[in-house]
């Protein structure tokens, strides 16, 4: 009988039993590296700047400047998001551990209490304080969610201010907040009314720094440039801007000015860029600011980062967006 010997014997493949407790790669398995070989180095991510930025926000920001810092949030043009910025930045500062007093300086057309959900708790205003009808602590409305955030309204809806009310009265109010028994707040944020009339002049009088809110459209930029000149004439040199309602799809299609274009036109330091977000309308109607949403939205995160930069008197740098290369067709060889 002729027997055939296989010179390449096949070894049976080990079977993997999923029900067994001993797996070929269990948690106790340790790879063995010979002395002549070195263990592979761990993979390092390429985006080191992104990692650093995430680690930066894991610490508490350091408060820069003398306290209390009186910041006015203005724009000149109405409807660009001044009150939304005041509510979200103010609550972001409170969440960071700083005491905040937000003053709604819009006479007769106040809306800050609506965005904060405090409209039913405003019983006294600054007008009653000046008339001697109540104390200052009675006019301050403390937020139940964050006890270090307080709201102060100038007047009630559809009411008129006394003839003598002006910038001096608001300066007296800010001085009274600085010297109250509970302690001076870290931030006094003033929500400025639209326009550049007497209400605007009154709101910016006690401020020593300003946040200019604008949108990337021509009408808003022209009003913002005018307001910048008025702020500088009033002695306010620390002016930063927030570009609101930015849409990257329209910027790529050359239908909207980029943030870099806005910064070059106004020549101001950039505090934050807020993307267009449909959640803004929902949060406004509910009286629940964006920064309190869980999970957070893109606009809410942008407001929190803007508040962080405001604390440390920092700014961000706008970058130019790279355009995607256009697809070349068959007739591109002939210049088509």
UniProtKB/TrEMBL annotation:
Residue segments, region Disordered: 1-48
Domain CobQ/CobB/MinD/ParA nucleotide binding: residue ranges: 71-289
Polar residues bias spans: 13-29
UniProt-listed Gene3D superfamilies: P-loop containing nucleotide triphosphate hydrolases (3.40.50.300)
Pfam family, one: CbiA
Protein family according to the UniProt entry: Belongs to the ParA family. MinD subfamily.
Official protein name in the record: CobQ/CobB/MinD/ParA nucleotide binding domain-containing protein
């Amino acid at each position: 009988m002729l027997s055939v010997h296989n010179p390449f014997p096949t070894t049976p493949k080990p079977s993997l039993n999923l029900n067994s407790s001993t797996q070929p790669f269990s948690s106790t398995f340790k790879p063995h590296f010979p002395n002549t070989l070195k263990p592979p180095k761990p993979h390092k991510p390429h985006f080191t700047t992104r990692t650093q930025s995430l680690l930066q926000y894991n610490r508490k920001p350091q408060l820069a400047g003398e306290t209390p810092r009186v910041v006015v949030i203005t724009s000149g043009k109405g409807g660009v998001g001044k009150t939304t910025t005041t509510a979200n930045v103010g609550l972001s500062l409170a969440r960071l551990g700083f005491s905040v007093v937000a003053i709604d300086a819009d006479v007769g057309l106040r809306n800050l209490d609506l965005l904060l959900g405090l409209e039913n708790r405003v019983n006294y205003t600054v007008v009653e304080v000046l008339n001697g009808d109540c104390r200052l602590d009675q006019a301050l409305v403390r937020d139940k969610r964050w006890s270090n955030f307080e709201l102060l309204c100038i007047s009630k809806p559809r009411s008129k201010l006394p003839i003598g009310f002006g910038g001096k009265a608001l300066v007296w109010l800010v001085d009274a907040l600085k010297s109250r028994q509970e302690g001076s707040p870290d931030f006094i944020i003033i929500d400025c009314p639209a326009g550049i009339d007497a209400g605007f002049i009154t709101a910016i009088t006690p401020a020593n720094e300003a946040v200019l809110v604008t949108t990337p459209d021509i009408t808003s930029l022209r009003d913002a440039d005018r307001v910048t000149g008025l702020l500088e004439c009033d002695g306010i040199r620390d002016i930063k801007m927030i570009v609101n309602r930015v849409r990257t799809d329209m910027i790529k299609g050359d239908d909207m000015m980029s943030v870099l274009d806005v910064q070059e036109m106004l020549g101001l330091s950039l505090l934050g860029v807020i993307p267009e977000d449909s959640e803004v309308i929902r949060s406004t109607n509910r009286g629940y600011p964006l920064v309190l949403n869980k999970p957070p939205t893109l606009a809410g995160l942008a407001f929190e980062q803007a508040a962080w930069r405001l604390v440390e008197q920092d700014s961000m740098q706008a970058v130019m967006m790279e355009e995607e290369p256009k697809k070349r067709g068959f007739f591109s060889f002939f210049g088509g």
